[in-house]
Amino acid sequence: MRGLAQAAPWGFALACVIGATLLRLALDPLLGNHYPLATYYAAVTIVGWFWGVNPAIFTAVVGYAAGNGLFLSPRYGPWAAHLHTLELPAYVAICTALIALT
Question: How far apart are CA 27 and CA 41, in angstroms?
């Protein structure tokens, strides 16, 4: 039972990333290429609020990996490679602020 309690924050974090990904996929017809990582900010905030810093950092990292693979990489050609270099620092700064506030 103790192992299950220790795994709860990480399972919740993973569930939030999956939920954020599904929500972003549902919003894709409206958002298109805009705001590729927007739903992951909410996931980081929720996990940080309920479970603290480490699960929130995990959520931010896994969320970026999912968002990068689904919403950034296939959409932009080589002409827009600079957008990737701007997206990561902005994501890290916003997630850091959200985690600090929660």
Answer: 15
